[in-house]
Amino acid sequence: MVSFLRFLINGISLGSVYAIIALGYTMVYGIAKMLNFAHGDVIMVGAYIAFCAMTYMGLPPFVAVLCAMLVCTVLGVMIEGLAYRPLREATKLAVLITAIGVSYLLQNTALLIWTANPKVFPSVFNVGAIRLFDGNLVITSEIILTIVANVVIMVALTMFTSKTKMGKAMRAVSEDRGAAELMGINVNRTISVTFAIGSALAAIAGVLLCSSYPTLMPTTGSMPGIKAFTAAVFGGIGSIPGAMIGGLLLGIIEILGKAYISTELGDAIVFAVLIIVLLFKPAGLLGKPVHEKV
Amino acid sequence: MKFNKAIVAMILAIVMVMGLASAAMAEDALKIGVIGPFTGAAAIYGNACKYGAQVAAEQINAQGGMQIELLNEDDEHDPEKSINAFNTVLDNGAQMIAGTTTTTPCIAVGKEANSERVFMLTPSASSPDVTADKDNVFQVCFTDPAQGAASAQYIKAHALGEKIAIIYNNADAYSTGIYQTFVEEAKTQGIEVVSETTFTDDTTDFSVQVSAAKDAGADLVFLPIYYTPASMILQTAKSMDYAPVFFGVDGMDGILTMEGFDTSLAEGVFMLTPFSADAQDERTQAFVARYQEVTGEIPNQFAADAYDAVYALYTASVNAGIDGSTDYADACEKLIAQFTSPDFQIEGLTGSMTWDASGAVTKTPTAVVIKDGAYVGFND
After folding, report:
1. Distance from CA of A65 to the nearest CA of B (A)
2. Which residues of A touch B259 (CB under 8 A)?
3. What DSSP line would sit under A15-77, residue for residue?
4. Which of B60, B252, B352, B359 has its CA 20 to 30 A from that of A137?
5. Partner residue facing A264 (CB), from B40, B43, B198
């Protein structure tokens, strides 16, 4: 029983990281209708910036996170402006391939700057732990922070998209880009803002990911990125609560699958569940089915 | 007068030829190619080998007698680049290879060296595939599987643990190979294995594997893996208040030099290694002192393996009468005869070594333990 709780909490913690990354995928997909495969690598850049700010410049963790968010925001807007905007009217496949290209560009640039030697992320958020059941269940401050950050970000984003003018503009663009443009919404600016928010979230996700799993390498973002993309599809891509639920479920399934079925099949189980869900609900758990109009 | 001119010209020509010949005689040093990853992900290993070999060559050259020249070439832990490096050192006159450092490139280069007839002695490439079906490739280090069996013997002999958990990378031949021989030897030794869990290169979360070990009541966790995942496992164990004995193999080497790593996490971690930098014998101390002067770091076992490789090649060359003018194919056959001869034994930093025709080395397993962020010899 205690070990089940331990697995559950670890699953929620891992799932929370997936969920925050998935938010970036789902927002960009919802609004720009494209899969930004470079998102996972923006996470890695964010983690490296925070690492450098803390280790080499001696900045406090909070300032380091802000630095990472700032750099990632600029990076996200730059990627959008230089690589994706010129392809706005191109086929979806062209944009997808460009995104994969950007992903490799970021990874290899990181390899040049920071080399492939793994760096260990400082445990800045380690301020103690809660011990339950005679110390058999240890909940670290990193786990609590990750879960809290996930909930806060989720609530803030929902408020933003439903209450603010920019949020409404985003929803309008996501609904119908042409009509939104006719109504006087600056579509390019809206998409840039989406990338800015998504990339800032990626920076936070990077710091949280590396706080819990401290090894930092140029490929650190790719696997969590793919898992988070899966989570976004699982929850219904384009839906903010969907990304959250998808991420959490994915994390829990991954950990419980490894714990009770087999560590060798952990990832296989995750993707098997995804396939089953998509067979029955092709739009994902919370996705709205889209009917083709003839 | 024309006749005199011709004589002068001839004499001059002869003098010039003699001059060239004597110049060639003067640089009659034994040329050893050293190939390894000096840059990139595995640079930690390659540089250790490079500088370890350098210290050995300095010592040998200081003794007088036949001199050694090392030809270093970077392979970035890439098989194709390694073959290029191999060809480069041959072009530059290498007569034998002390390398390559890492397994995958070593298998590729070994194949070339076998058809090309160049003698290879790898300090650290530990897969059995490195020497398999090649009569001219030898190892200074244990083979991977031998490390698994040696670990089980060591754990039993020093009573380090009763209930053993194993966490290994099932996507990696190195890790799986050690795991298999460990389990086999554990059975023979009567050690109980209570938990076996796996991960892959993409795994970020190790909580399940560590939980399984903890719940099974393991008092020793065997980690036949590289240092990067090992650092994550140590961190996870700490966050669960789980403190068994951790026992790693040579892939664990490098954990203390990871940038930003909290070395207190590795306190008390055992590592199977043939070399301990704090051994008290004069030779080790001289090696460590000189290595520190050159690099500013404490040498690891890769450095010691490379040091021994250079000494072994040199000793065998002297015994077989190989000098700087012997061509590599001739040197190759002579060295094979030396290494497989029953009288050939090298007293190195990593122990007393002998070889058989398979190319694998025989030596006693020893281990070190990490104390205050440094490797310390373990004597109980």
Report:
1. 18
2. 55, 117-120
3. HHHHHHHHHHHHHHHHHH-S--TTHHHHHHHHHHHHHHHHHTS---HHHHHHHHHHHHHHHHH
4. B252
5. B198
Residue B22 pLDDT more than 50? no
Say yes or no to pLDDT of A269 above 60: yes
* Total residue length of chain B: 380
Domain B145-273 belongs in CATH node 3.40.50.2300: yes
For residue A290, is it within any domain? no
Residue B338: partners with Cβ closer than 8 Å, 6 or more residues away: B316, B319, B320, B344
Within 8 A of A266 by CB-CB distance, chain B residues are: 203, 208
**pLDDT-based confidence at residue B286 (cuts at 50, 70, 90):** very high
Number of domains in chain A: 1
Which residue ranges make up each domain of chain B?
30-142+281-364, 145-273
* Residues A14, B43: C-beta atoms closer than 8 Å: no
Chain B: residues touching A (Cβ < 8 Å): 40-41, 43-44, 170, 197-200, 202-205, 207-209, 211-212, 215, 228-229, 231-232, 235, 239-241, 258-262
Structural domain boundaries enclosing A140: 15-221
Please determine, for residue B25, whether its predicted confidence score (pLDDT) is greater than 50.
Answer: no
Q: What is the DSSP string of B122-176?
A: ESS---GGGTTT-TTEEESSPPHHHHHHHHHHHHHHTT--SEEEEEEETT-HHHH
The pLDDT value recorded for residue B23 is 42
Is residue A142 one of the residues assigned to a domain?
A: yes
Q: Which residue has the higher pLDDT, B262 or A293?
A: B262
Contact A3 B211 (CB under 8 A): yes
pLDDT in tens, B227-246: 888 888 998 888 888 889 99
pTM here? 0.74
Contact B260 A119 (CB under 8 A): yes
CB A250 within 8 A of CB A15: yes
DSSP symbol at B107: H
Domain B30-142+281-364 has CATH 3.40.50.150: no
pLDDT at B252: 84
Question: Which residues of A fall within a CB distance of 8 Å from B199?
Answer: 263
Q: Environment class of residue A270 by beta-carbon count within 10 Å: exposed (0-12), middle (13-18) or buried (19+)?
A: buried
Residue A245 counted as domain residue:
no
> Which of A12, A213, A223, A267 to mutate: most B Cβ within 10 Å?
A213
What average pLDDT does the segment B99-107 reach?
89
Please give the C-alpha separations between residue A255 and each of A260, A265, A267, in angstroms, as whole numbers.
9, 11, 9
Average pLDDT over residues B172-199: 88
Residues in chain B with CB shorter than 8 Å from the CB of A212 are: 205
Is residue A162 a part of any domain in this protein? yes
**Cβ of residue A186 closer than 8 Å to a chain B Cβ:** no
Bigger pLDDT: B9 or A141?
A: A141
Q: Taking CB atoms and an 8 Å limit, are A6 and B207 in contact across chains?
A: yes
Q: Which residue has the tokens 């966490």?
A: B167
Which residue from A14, A51, A120 is facing B205, i.e. has the nearest CB? Answer: A14
The mean predicted confidence, pLDDT, of chain A is 86
Mean pLDDT of B145-160: 86
**Are B228 and A224 inside 8 Å of each other by CB?**
no
